[in-house]
Design a protein that fits this description.
By secondary structure, the chain is mainly α. Helix 5 runs antiparallel to helix 6. It is globular and about 40 Å long.
Length: 106
């Protein structure tokens, strides 16, 4: 597998997760970031893995990196809203939602 071919690496990581090989999946996502440090899909997948493992600060770091490096992509912003609402930060969730709505209108 050529790690620079991100669609294949992303699909393989998803299969690894289905097989219960979370460590291998994480390694694949991190390899993608070695070649494309702002890859939204890899960053968001790592955020989901970190959150599932209770590493909320790490999850937030990945979400914010994805959002800051891809400001025109609404996906990281929506994840940030969801993260803030889930973690009992409703004001931040609401404020982030206002930003996302503004971005989606422009």
């Amino acid at each position: 597998l050529d790690p620079k071919f991100t669609p294949a690496a992303m699909n393989l990581a998803k299969l690894e997760i289905k097989d219960g090989n979370v460590t291998k999946a994480r390694e694949l996502y991190e390899q993608i970031l070695n070649y494309s440090s702002n890859h939204v899909g890899a960053l968001m997948a790592l955020a989901q893995l970190a959150e599932a493992e209770g590493q909320k600060d790490k999850a937030l770091k990945y979400i914010e990196q994805a959002r800051n490096s891809n400001p025109d992509n609404p996906v990281p912003g929506l994840y940030l809203v969801q993260y803030n609402l889930k973690n009992r930060k409703p004001l931040w969730g609401w404020l982030n939602w206002q930003v996302i709505k503004k971005v989606m209108r422009s």
